[in-house]
Design goal:
globular, Fumarylacetoacetate hydrolase, domain 2, 26% strand, alpha+beta, homodimer, five-stranded antiparallel β-sheet, SH3 type barrels, 11 helices
């Protein structure tokens, strides 16, 4: 687990002015990674680090000229069109680059003049996925989500007997993952109309979002080897925001016995910025299991977990309807929860995933599952917020929602804050629902 | 659907003698693709085509010198270390290369002397996966398997109401797929001992194989687009054999509600050779749905499907125990089934997979699910053959099996035969179970 070091010092300020503004997601204590290029250009995509409202171009010649040693090697890897190579270099490289950037970008750096040309404004940039995602695994790690959803799908049997023992997960679709800004047509799927004895193919009528934390794997493990819990975080590069769009009517009809498939694999959207675990060091929290619950099996338990296994990341879901956009009204917040309430930690997800020898690779993505908190208002999906579509939400425009309407744009935000430290943000992930294509 | 053409002519013979031997998997009418190099060498992997007991090296200079046009472009793509680029070229390129190879390799070819140095004996070769597999989807398309297994997992509810409507599938793990010859340690996993109220971590005691057909996607589709049933086969490059190793005790405990995960993702093994759909043209069969069953929704139905949507591929599972090896005894055949009995066709799997706009990419892999036939002896897994482990199989060595023992080697074979055509084979896929690692 990462120690707090000079890069987290709350007194640090940057010579990039916007990084010092109160409330920025990207102060010098953050230094998250993305892959970007100038909007609309045919430049190659390459790695960048966010600072205030700017992006430090990690492929810029100015930067290569001032780095040395491991940091220079890491920078060279970051100039590639995906960060897979950089992720595979492991924690020593990530940490060396963070230290180098923290020093080069702080107010008293002697490189300020030299590095100023290496920045691109965020508003002038477009993003790509930060990694080629070989495999995407989605977990189900919020017990609050699992219980509420379980009640809707299986009223007599909401939380299955395995839930408190097994970090339940399944493999998702890698090919349809896109970076923030993904607009997609309402998908078709087989649905069973209420009372019908045969399904029909129709655009989903119960389109939902799922508020998740995405976890990028850095250094992988060999097929046949196991990552012990105590070493699990060494394999984690960082976190982002993830929207696991879901067609609930399709899901209800298709999910037995092999799990969700077409209900989920039409689109998954990620925030562009990956915040490293090292940046999150000040925002750790004890991982706690209620005393009345079974305690984890030994391979999923450990001292560091109990001390600081959780991550206190605040999460919000916002909705912007077409009417809000037309009327110039702001989006409305639908919920607010914290990743701290997750029943399983990131380290437990990694240890469990590999306990059978399954190999994780650099750039693989884990989803946390919908992060719902203990109260109904903290629910991370419309399915939960509307009690399975039975209690519509009222919006300030006079509109109501059970599930998403065409034109709806969903935005997630995430950040960490704690007394004595500078707030750091995950940025946001946005995506919009377009009308279904005409029947073919 | 591919027409029968001159490449299927049963009278064709090759100037490579072993291709003309009765019973070979790889006559000149087959021409399947793999990625190979000389065993133990540090040569680059590249594409090859099987002919008798030889491999035509598609990267060989001799070959490049005689091909022209699209066939030459296809050959250049086949010289890469994976066939993804070749697969992405689509059917016109695959078919042009097949025609070129058929002509260059037949007995009366003028290229015989020139191409002779471009061969490597199969016994001197080692294989790699033929494609970088971006996503792997496993289906559940044999109703006989689904019914038998359903009875074991859900005695009161064997075949779920969606089965006859939805080609049930789920996403599998791409990173742990290996080519034939994969030996792996018996995996650990959480299992719930009979009568226990808490699970334990243990090596699986119910390790099984699953006899499947693997389907490689060639040309992909854009995210948000749909592949109509009538065009589905244009997106399919070819088929191979697939062993979806499964830990049944882990599966039973973990699979609800999101499907199999660690029970399956520790290893999946593929045969090296991919037989193209064009090579399989003579072995098509009508796709039939029993009259008493619901007929498919329109997006899963069509005239070509009804005429020739099925593939009559014979499938066998063989077991070689450590004792058989020690005593020099041959492997024993455990079952024999046909892909013809599959409830859903390959075209239906593709059309269903994309009906929501999910994008398939060149090199993606679909598994058919365990191919069990209508009689109990045709079951494609030990779970079925032993009635869930209750009725052990007796082997000629005096051994018995419910599930796989350490040292067991499982071999699948596949082939097509039909009066008036030359038999073609899929070759074989083999893998072996090693003892579990010591507890850590």
């Amino acid at each position: 687990m990462h120690a707090i070091n000079a890069t987290h010092d709350p007194s640090l300020r940057s010579w990039v002015g916007s990084a010092n503004r109160t409330g920025t997601d990207f102060p010098i204590q953050n230094l998250p990674f993305a892959v970007f290029r100038r909007s609309g250009s045919d430049e190659p995509f390459r790695g960048g680090v966010a600072l205030g409202d700017q992006i430090l171009d990690l492929g810029a010649a100015e930067l290569a000229g001032v780095a040395t040693g491991v940091a220079a090697e890491a920078l060279a890897a970051c100039a590639e069109p995906t960060l897979n190579s950089f992720m595979a270099m492991g924690n020593a490289a990530w940490s060396a680059l963070r230290k180098f950037l923290s020093e080069a970008l702080r107010a008293d750096s002697r490189f300020a003049a030299r590095l100023r040309p290496a920045f691109v404004p965020q508003k002038a940039a477009e993003y790509a996925l930060a990694a080629r995602i070989g495999d995407y695994t989605d977990f189900y790690a919020s017990i609050h989500h699992a219980t509420t959803v379980g009640k809707l799908f299986r009223p007599d049997n909401p939380l299955l007997p395995n839930y408190k023992w097994v970090p339940i997960g399944y493999h998702g679709r890698a090919s349809s993952i896109r970076v923030s800004g993904q607009d997609f047509q309402r998908p078709y799927g087989q649905v069973l109309p209420k009372g019908a004895d045969r399904p029909e193919l129709a655009p989903t009528a119960r389109l939902d979002y799922e508020l998740e934390v995405g976890v990028f794997i850095g250094a992988g493990n060999q097929l046949g080897s196991r990552v012990p819990l105590a070493e699990a975080e060494e394999h984690v590069f960082g976190v982002c925001l993830l929207n696991d769009w879901s067609a609930r009517d399709v899901q209800a009809w298709e999910y037995q016995p092999l799990g969700p498939f077409l209900a989920k694999n039409f689109a998954t959207t990620l925030s562009p910025w990956i915040v490293t675990l090292e940046a999150l060091a000040p925002f750790r929290a004890p991982w706690m299991r209620p005393a009345q619950d079974p305690q984890p099996l030994p391979y999923l338990d450990g001292a560091a977990l109990r001390t600081a296994g959780a991550l206190d990341i605040q999460l919000e879901a916002w909705l912007e309807t077409a009417r809000m956009r037309a009327q110039g009204l702001p989006p409305e917040r639908l919920s607010h929860s914290s990743f701290r309430d997750c029943y399983w930690s990131v380290s437990q997800l990694v240890a469990h995933h590999t306990v059978n020898g399954c190999n994780l690779e650099a750039g693989d993505l884990l989803g946390s599952g919908t992060q719902s908190g203990p109260t109904p208002e903290e629910a991370g999906s419309l399915l939960e917020l509307t009690d399975g579509g039975k209690r519509p939400i009222s919006l300030g425009t006079g509109e109501t929602r059970t599930f998403l309407a065409d034109g709806d744009r969903v935005v997630f935000r995430g950040w960490c804050e704690k007394a004595g430290y500078v707030r750091i943000g995950l940025g946001e992930v946005a995506g919009r629902v377009l009308p279904a294509a005409p029947p073919s």
